[in-house]
TrEMBL record:
It comes from the Bacteria. Gene3D superfamilies: YqgF/RNase H-like domain. GO terms for biological process: nucleobase-containing compound metabolic process. This is YqgF/RNase H-like domain-containing protein.
Amino acid sequence: MNILSIDPGKCKFGAAVVNDAGRILCRRIERVRASGDGGRAGVFDLIYAPLAEIIDETADAYGIELITLGDSTASREYMSAIVMILRKNERFSRVVLEIVDESHTTEAARALFHKHNPPFFLLRWLPYSMIPVFREVDDFAAVAIALKYLKNKDI
């Protein structure tokens, strides 16, 4: 089973595809483009098109069966958009949406980042929490959400 996991946010969101063994198949950060209406557009209007594109691409490439969504920032808007996308397209009829507690996923994302991008020389002996991350880790936060779902579904 392949899982599309989404770490929601107002300005950007992380997306990752993880298999049921916890292996990362792909990950990316998608920026939400501000509208030209002076800020009157809601989060839903800004996220719908990028979410539809990601769901469509990952369904084709990886055959996703489940979407996990973090429960924090703007998650209601993301949930509404995802439900609408899934209902509009017949081929997504078997895709299930699960909401996952997003607490501590940023810390897990930083650790995952360092695991996949090991620190150099002397820094590798420091705890991951003390090593700065010089890029956004929303994609790894999405991975952390999927891994949290996989861990908790077995309980």
